[in-house]
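Troubleshooting: if your tokenizer reports a length mismatch, compare against these two reference records.
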Amino acid sequence: MTIGELSKATNISEYTLRYYEKKNLIIVNRDDIGRRCYVENDVEWIKFIQRLKETGMLLRDIEKYSQLRYKGDETMPERLSMLEKHRLYVLEQQKKWQEYLENLDSKITYYENSISDC
């Protein structure tokens, strides 16, 4: 799979994919003339990187996770620990956003009631 095909499969720009490679988030095989050759496993890995980013994991932590991933199965306990820690962070953020949502709902209800009373 070429970088263009991977870009379409993941909905991530070629520029971003090259950046991921530069930061060693992905290790890419190359053909005889140096073109990048991606495999289906790369698609899922890149989608996972995006989910980590979207849930607020810091780039340095994603880099560390990636390095561990490429070292192999012996790093699974450390990766599990990282994901468990990040899960707690996501739950904290979810709780915070729930509070924000409740506050917005309360304000919306206030305005709706105030408008209907007029």
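Reference record two:
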Amino acid sequence: METIRLEFQPQIKAKILELLSSFSSDELKIVTEITTFEEEKRMIQSRLDKINDGTAVYSTFEELDVLLDETISKYED
């Protein structure tokens, strides 16, 4: 499948969705974007700033493994 991003005026949203609903789920899947480019840019810049100023917190693979095991066991039951 291919992905495209559409920007449109709110008043035509119903028309666009009506057109898109004429396709089957095998032909078309509507994917809602959770964040905007600017939000992602700010988040990435914030993380980069923490790395550059030395306040970023790092974990070893062993620490991550323990955290994953704890999280998985919490939801297994």
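Descriptive notes for reference record two:
- The chain has a mean pLDDT of 89.
- The CA atoms of residues 25 and 58 lie 42 Å apart.
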